Amino acid sequence: MKCEEYRNQFADWYMERLDAAKKAELEGHLDTCADCREALAATQFVLDSISNLPDPEPSARVRADFRTMLDEFKAVEEKNVPPNGFWGQLKRSWALQPRFSLAYSLMVLLVCVSVVFLISRDSKQEADVRDLRAQLNELKQTKLLALLDNPLASERMKAVNYTGEMKHVDGRVINALLTTLNNDPNDNVRLSTLEALAALGNQPEVRTGLIKSITMQNSPVIQLAIADVMLKLQEKRSVGSFKALLKQKDLDNEVKRKLKETITKLI
Amino acid sequence: MDILSDNALMLQVKAGDLERMSLLFERHHKALFGFLFHLTQRREASEDMVQTVFYRMLKYRNSFAEESNFSGWMYHIARNVLKDQKFGLSNKYDMIGEHEEKIAGGTLADERIEKSQSRKQLYDAMGMLTEGDREILMLNSMKELKYPEISKIMGITEGAARVRVFRAVEELRQIFIKKGIKGANE
Description:
The complex is a heterodimer. By secondary structure, chain A is an all-alpha fold.
């Protein structure tokens, strides 16, 4: 070894981080090399002055403040003990939704349903009923689009879940969902969006959009989920995108394995 | 594993026994304070940051994994807290004044003055290093941290950490020489 390499180990030697063999080797070299001995003395001097920095005493306030902080933290934690398990968490997140928006939706629904009910008694006005149903659907879609822009992840999630209740989903909504799938910062929201889109998998634009989206996902969870969806839809056109995704660096190993498996199953 | 080791205690905190954090506080708050103080040279801000670090450890306790090293994890958080505060070293002399007050006077005054002189020179020299060099030297001087932890905290490879320590020592040595501090010449 060159002197330079030995000198790289001085700090380790000083902090006693070298194993016995390396330590012996370095010390052996020091016995024969006067230059390195001097360099070590200088390094030692520098490191000594750092270790000799006086350890300042924190004031008593620090301990008292810590006690207060810990007690407060414990009190807060005890108050919101998270309900156990996934379902409990889900229930809790529903309970957190702003109630008036829920009330508003229910009221609109109630008014519409009663109108529909009243009208439907009159068989001559069936056309109106159909019209109203369409309007209701339209209303839902508009609400969904507005909710998708909400800064709260839980609200966006709710919007995504709305699509399950809809009979007809038009291009606007599909576009909005695809945009959410590709750009939403929250993993859970994207995951729900993927599920919602998978349910609409019989529409060609959804399939195309999903295939395009494959290479845009960087979260392993979503990558795994999208592979599952493509398998379920038996979408052979996705193979190219998966191959492109496989070429990406720092891809999760589990994802790599899954993608390869998906590709072989699809081909 | 020893049930009172740092890691075991932290895992108990993670499992919900929050009170265990007070033991970890007793063990580590002084060293942590020293680390923050030497890097920022601000007493009150460092005391506040100690709280913040412990608060974050409680809040993000679930990110502590069984194979984590407690000290490594703590200093990693401390470094983030420091980064959030974005301290420069501009007011370092205020602090040194503050420090001097505590050691002045008494029968050994001469010796103390001499000590405080060389300490002042050292702080001065440390102040001339880049933030990164100062940080790696402080991390290097922590007994409980080894290269795997240091490199993780800094987000670099072990080899790179070793080289950076070497360079920072060299940098400080050159500053010592320039300032005429004896003992730094080869």
